[in-house]
Structure formats: C-alpha cells, structure tokens
Design brief:
Radius of gyration: 20 Å
Number of helices: 11
CATH class of the largest domain: Alpha Beta
Number of domains: 2
CATH architecture of the largest domain: Alpha-Beta Complex
Distance between the termini: 59 Å
Helix content: 40-55%
Shape: globular
Strand content: 5-15%
Order of helices and strands: HEEEHEEEEHHHHEEEEHHHHH
Length: 341
Amino acid sequence: MEPVVFAAERFGFYTPFFELLTDGLIHKTYKVTANNRAAILQQVNTNVFRDINAVVGNYQLIDSHLERSGMLRVPAMIKTMQGDDTWTDKEGSCWRAFEFIANTYTEALPASPEKIFSAAKCYGQFTSSLSGLDIEKLKPTIASFHDLSHRYRQLQTAISNANDERLKKSRTLLEKITIRKNLVEFYESLKSNPEFKIRAMHHDTKLSNILFDKATGQAVCPIDLDTTMPGYFFSDVGDMIRSMISPSDENAPADSVEVNPEIYRAIVSGYESGIGNSFTTAERNEIHKAGMIMLYMQGIRFLADYLSNNTYYKIKYAEQNFDRALNQITLLEKLEEFLDA
C-alpha cells in the first residue's frame, strides 16, 4: 500500500482517493478524499526544514493571529486521530495535513496582469495582517535564508575552494556580481536603519503559492507558509518580481529572459495596495530595489553551488547551476535597463 494511504488514515481519512498535486524540490503534496471530506496531505522534507516543531509552531501562531484579526484566513491544520500535529512513518518521513478550501485553485505562469495584481495584493495583505504579531515569537525555519551578506560570503568561500576550470568559466559572471556589491552594502545599511522594519514575511512568493476563488478569480489566501519568518521589505515583492516578470523561468536559456513591463507594474502596484500603510516611507521609496536584490541573491546562490560542485540544488546536467546563475544575472541586467528607462 502507498505510504500516503497509511498517512491519510492517521489523519482520519480511511480508504482514501488520493491525487498527487506537487512532487517539487521541497515537499510531496497530495489531495486526499474520503467520505465526502477532502484534505491536503504533505510529506515534509525534513532535510530542508529540520526543526519541524518550529514550522508547526509558526503556522499555529500565524493561523491564530489571522483568525483573531478576521482579515485573512489560511488553511487550518488537521490533527491526527491521536491529537498530534504531525505523524512520522516507519521510514522516518514526517506527514501533516491541512483543510482543503473548497472552490479554490492555483494558477500557473504565464498569467494575466490582473491575476498577478490580485496575487501580489494578497501577499501584501498577508504581511499587513500580521503586523500586530509579536515577531519575537516567530522562529526562523531556514537560517539566513534571505541574508544577502551571508549569501555573498558563501560565494567567496565557494570561490576560494573552486577548481580552476569552473572559476575560469565563471569569470565574467563573477565580475558582474562584484560590480553590483553596492546591493550588499545597501542590505547592510538597512539592518541598522529603523525605517526598515523586521516583519513577518512569506519568503516564497511564487504564483502557485496563492489560492484563487473559482467563482471570482480573485486571490483568497497564501499557502505553503513554512518559510514565513522575520524578514525585510524586499523579500516578498522581490521574489514575485524575480519569479514572474519574465516569460522564461530560471531554467531557461539566458537569452530568452526579458522584463514584461505590465507584469512588473502589476506586482508593485498590487503589493503596495495590499500592504497599505504598513510600509514606511523609506521602504516605499526603495521598493524598486527589491527585485534587483532577489535576482542578485539567487544568481549568487546558483553560482556558489556551481563552484561547489552542485551540492545543494537538484540538477539535470553538470552546468545547470551555472546556466541558472547566468539566467538570473541576465534578467537582473534587463531589469536595471527597464528601471533606468
């Protein structure tokens, strides 16, 4: 019998029908149905999220706060038949379940500017709705996740340990990264500036992490909150820009990336609409740095992994992380050109 069947039974779904929704880089996610009830069941990747108690605790904290505020909802966690938040199978895999919100769906790229605006507004509302949450209670689930200085240092370490062939191939990319070190300096400066607040940020603002209403087509709520933790203004709007402004994703050839102006404007205006007065004047003034920071950071991460012989990201061929880094830095250059214009 499939492991998901055993897991479903622990959460009260007997003889279930199950459908694989995602088998991504992080979790394996199913929709399970039994006795006219449906739920989302996930096999958690504990190699990425090693402190499952922090993940679960954060989710419960966020859910309780949003329920009290009445401003936004997220899918409620479902306990096991024994009253536990998670269940670990005999192979050591950790499972959890959430309510399935009826009449919702997820969008995929490419999407219309209207859909992008609605998603961006929802992500902004999410952070705004959590503004009253005690940030000290929200635990980091991945250390230094969007810490640009930390990622830059990782690249320097990778350079010092890389073989000559990979260093030679990376020389031009490294030069482009070095001349943009002002982004690292900007990141360092905002950490000591009280105008840049530490807030509860989602940190993984893909379009597919938003549920949409089937009837209205409008965004309902964000999902996959595992990386929701303290962060700075650039993370969520920047990751949307990074992942949505080009019709070609990070695995496409670098010469295929481009900036869609309508999508860019939909992201920024949607997010500003959602977050409202939660942003300070300084954050609003620097919002166009957000996409640059996230593209720069992701390019650095891909290149550092390439120079470290591909130890972190899954690859399908030996040079893929180099190609991904080239893709992100090329898109960064095109974003700079667009913003200058």
